[in-house]
Write a structure and sequence with these properties.
The chain has 155 residues and is an alpha+beta fold. Helices cover 28% and strands 26% of the residues. Strand 2 and strand 3 form a beta hairpin. The longest helix has 10 residues. The radius of gyration is 18 Å and the shape is globular. The N and C termini lie far apart (41 Å).
Length: 155
């Protein structure tokens, strides 16, 4: 079996000939090829990253943000993301029940964003997370454009 067949077998409830190897080489690729890393949203597939996965025989990892838009079905919930002057990536979600905020800082050594402030900091924050989960919608980009669900608030 090749890597894709192994993963497909698992999803179909069959036993593959060995454990599927599903590598995500995106961090390694971005660091070594000096590709900017942006948490604010991924809207395109990087063909060079896809080719790297193929070359080593790993199942290709494609960031879902390239194909889907997340939105809230309730207009009273907002979600925004930005990088501030100090270089911190911030995300803020406001619901009728309250406000959640996350902050991350980019670390050059690991080429990743470490969390400096968690979105959920106590059990009191779970009320907002339930509202977020209940009212979150997902739409393939093409359908969003055709059917008017293009109310992306995560920019």
């Amino acid at each position: 079996m090749n890597p894709s067949e192994r993963v497909r077998a698992v999803y179909e409830g069959r036993i593959p000939d060995q454990v599927p190897l599903m590598l995500d080489l995106s961090h390694w690729y971005k660091k070594n090829y000096q590709v900017p890393f942006d948490l604010a949203g991924l809207t395109q597939v990087d063909p060079k990253l896809v080719e790297l996965h193929k070359q080593i025989g790993a199942v290709c990892y494609v960031e879902a943000g390239s194909y889907f838009e997340l939105f809230f079905e309730d207009d009273s919930i907002t979600d925004r993301a930005w990088t501030d002057e100090q270089g911190f990536f911030n995300r803020e979600i406001i619901t009728p029940a309250g406000k959640l905020r996350e902050q991350r800082t980019f670390e050059e050594i690991s080429y990743s964003y470490n969390i400096t402030k968690h979105l959920l900091e106590s059990v009191d924050d779970f009320g907002e997370s339930v509202l977020i989960a209940i009212h979150r919608g997902v739409c393939p980009f093409d359908d969003c454009r055709v059917f008017g669900h293009n109310n992306s608030q995560f920019k």
